[in-house]
Amino acid sequence: MNERDDIAADDAFAAKAKTLFDQSVDGLDGETRSRLTRSRQEALAAVGGGGSRWMQWAPAGGLAAAAVLAVVVFTPTPQLDELEVPEVATDMEILLTEDSLEMIEDLEFYSWIDFDAEAGDGEGPTNNVG
Amino acid sequence: MNAYAANFAVSCVAEDRREVDTLQRERRLNQFFAGVEKRALRIAEISIRNRDDALDLVQDSMIKLARNYADRPDEEWTPLFYRILQNRIRDWQRRQAVRNRVMVFFGRGNEEDDYDPVAAAPDPAGRTPDEELQTREAMQSLEAAISALPGRQREAFMLRTFECLDVAGTAAAMGCSEGSVKTHYSRAIHSLRDTLGEHWQ
């Protein structure tokens, strides 16, 4: 098939596709057509209404912003020295210090010391390693 | 006092003219939508294979055009409208892809499989049952083949063939160069011809 035949075949294909498509458009049911008409009316009602959606919420938005500002400004805030540090925070602070982490790493060793000290009546651990 | 009256008269005339302009623009826009809405619906429906969602996309596109671009020259409306619609279609497809992934993750099937092209096919238009059946089957085959095309090829083919936009208008609607439109269209039509075979023609 030469190039001219190929172009002609493309055109014939496109023409048939267009005919079928137009038939399917013409065959749209009444309910669908009705919905399209309603959609069109809604769209036409929006002509030139670029900012209307935002503008209709502007008063409510302003009131909400004012209320938030009032709460922030007039709510008494506690002084720093009045703040109580929760116990959990204190525990976390102890746990997260460097020394404590070292202790955790050597927990087995300290456990052995403790056990050995109890066994030897507080004389300290015996060196039985190795 | 006379100057005040003259100013008032001029402002009234200007106001009347604005109202007339707005009414004329609405009338032209109404004609434009009436002329394009059914084809736009079918194009969207072929792309996403869901009529209800296609109706929503067309409505969103009409509202956006009316709200933001009604004051543009009339000849720009068609490519603008289809550009909005194509963007809506792409957004829908992206959301649907994510939704399908989530559904698969939770073990739910793909609801797109429930699409029944026979049930969604248009009503008969005064043809004999045999003709109607042949036409319907041919259109179903065409729709399935178009749906299987890559997105940009599908857009180029439908805008050029179904909406009869020229290359420049299609490029504006797709947001790409005219050369890209030609490439996408050429690949699309050859792919469709290969898929549907000689007997379809």
Features:
heterodimer, A: 130 residues, mainly alpha, 72% helix, elongated, B: 201 residues, Arc Repressor Mutant, subunit A, 8 helices
Describe the overall structure.
The complex is a heterodimer of chains A (130) and B (201). Helix content of chain A is 72%, strand content 0%. With 130 residues, chain A is an all-alpha fold. Chain A has two domains: 3-74, no CATH class; 80-119, no CATH class. The longest helix of chain A is centred in the N-terminal third of the chain and has 24 residues, at 3-26. Residues 124-130 of chain A have low confidence and may be disordered. Chain B is an all-alpha fold and 201 residues long. Chain B has two domains: 1-115, no CATH class; 127-201, Winged helix-like DNA-binding domain superfamily/Winged helix DNA-binding domain (Arc Repressor Mutant, subunit A, Orthogonal Bundle). Helix content of chain B is 80%, strand content 0%. Chain B has eight helices and no strands. Chain B has helices at residues 2-48, 51-68, 77-105, 117-120, 129-147, 151-162, 167-174, 178-200. In chain B, helix 1 (2-48) packs antiparallel against helix 2 and helix 5 crosses helix 8. Chain B is elongated and about 80 Å long. Chain B starts with a helix and ends with a helix. The mean pLDDT of chain B is 86. The chains are: A mainly alpha (130), B mainly alpha (201). Chains A and B meet through helix 1 and helix 2 of A and helix 1, helix 2, helix 5, helix 6 and helix 8 of B.
